[in-house]
What does this fold into?
Amino acid sequence: IRQVLHRWKERAVAESRYRELCEIADLHRRSRMLAKCLDGFRQNVQLQFKKMVLRGKHDNFVSDHVIQKMFVTWKSALNDKMIEKKQTEQALWFWCVTLEHRVLRAWISYTQYRKKKQKSYRAALQDRRQYLIQTGLRQWMKSVTLAEETRSRAVLEAVTQQTYRANELALKWGRHWRNLVKCHARSCTRISRNTDLENQRILLPIGSSVGKTTFLETPKFYE
It folds into this structure.
């Protein structure tokens, strides 16, 4: 029993010692873990603080860089806008000058064209006037020539008719004279058979009879 008690006692002492050692080990483990956790927490806090500082610096840098970049971009865009405005003004001025030059050239060309057209129109009117004058003169000369020809024909016809009438009249007078001469010759032939004394007495009445015959025959000729 003593041995059992002694073993139980030793075992109890060993168990109590083991428990103490376990408690000490557990306490040591806890202390080590706590120290480790504190060290990790401190490191994490430092890391987070560094991160926060770096993030702030990064944000400041980024903001400064973005602002600077935006300012540079705005300044470049403003310069481009001013250059574009200046170039636009120059282009508008050049376009206005070119347009004025083109308008002036077009106006000069149009005035020259109008002058040439008026000149050609006047030349055409002059040519037409001369053509009309020449045509009128030709027609007038033709009509005058035709009138002269008609007049000359009429005069020629009148002269021809007068000549024909004169010839006819002369022919009638010639025939009448020939008849008178024949009658006178016949009467002379009859009277020549008589004596010379009778011829001298008869010649005078014969002449008067001839005159009477001529006076009586003349109205018949004119009729």
